[in-house]
Amino acid sequence: QVQLEESGGGSVKVGGSLRLSCAASGSDSRDCMGWFRQAPGNERERVARINAYDRSDYADFVEDRFIISKDSAKNTLYLQMNSLKPEDTAMYFCAADPGLGGNCKSSDLFKYWGQGTQVTVSS
Questions:
Q1: Pick from 56, 32, 35, 39: nearest CA to 104
Q2: Residue 106 has pLDDT above 90, yes or no
């Protein structure tokens, strides 16, 4: 099992920044970790993910504004979000998965999920 707890969400003005954190605990492997978001009325979408080799990938809408990183010593995943836009408003979820050989699976079927943290961007 893996437990995930997000923090760092909040309200920010357009163009502002936030750093989300996800504290992970538990014994199962979590070679692939990611951030997802879901806005009301929309489907959940992947924002970014990072594998055991610290290789990361991002959704097109990120446009180089966000950075995913992890501190293995602290068992914490981060998402630094800059130049925030109103369309970034959503509940953000941390996810973890054992992956395959240190890599993320091609699907977005993560095994473990956090409860989410709300991000609201206003003009």
A1: 32
A2: no
